[in-house]
Design a protein that fits this description.
Length: about 180
């Protein structure tokens, strides 16, 4: 009989239990700002802000936010805001080719790349023998930011190609596989 009473009490406790979730996350994604490319997205940069609700206040523990007057760094140890409003943080862009989608591709692919500082940029496509196939960007001045363009290879034979982005100081290469 004791087993049934204990089981009944346990079942009642489970059936009427309430759970409170007191943590939250806002803006778990990233963002970018590149006015020269016509792109403007406002979001957190880096890690999303994570915190706990404490009696109507919020404790934020990590990340960067874009504030009204500039960038607001959130102290990762204390959860405090450091609103220095100088708009200077580590550069969010790094030089290189971010990706080719799809790869392998059929007739066209989208190539994404980043420029970390104002530079004169050249973007070239080579075949497997090293012959220049196309130069979509030929020594154009470009501001820092993330860029994307679509390469249409339908007038070229199937095979392996290489895309190279270069400035006067840096170079990056990625392999492209064109299939029909």
């Amino acid at each position: 009989m004791k087993k049934y009473i204990i089981l009944l009490i346990l079942a009642a406790a489970v059936a009427f239990a309430q759970t409170e979730i007191n943590w939250w996350v806002f803006d778990g994604g990233g963002g970018m700002r590149s006015p020269s490319a016509g792109d403007t997205m406002w979001a957190s940069i880096g890690q999303g802000a994570i915190g706990f609700a404490n009696g109507g206040t919020a404790e934020v523990s990590a990340g960067y936010l874009y504030g009204v007057n500039g960038l607001v760094k959130i102290d990762e140890d204390e959860g405090d805001f450091d609103d220095n409003n100088d708009g200077k943080i580590d550069k969010p862009f790094s030089f290189g080719i971010d990706g080719v989608r799809p790869n392998p591709f059929n007739s066209a692919c989208e190539i994404e790349f980043q420029i970390e500082e104002f530079s004169i940029v050249k973007f070239e496509i080579f075949d497997i023998l090293g012959n220049l196939v196309e130069r979509p960007i030929d020594e154009i001045e470009m501001a820092e930011g993330q860029y994307r363009f679509t390469w249409n290879a339908s007038n070229n034979p199937t095979g392996t190609y290489f895309a190279r982005i270069s400035t006067r100081q840096k170079h990056a290469v990625v392999k492209l596989l064109y299939l029909k």
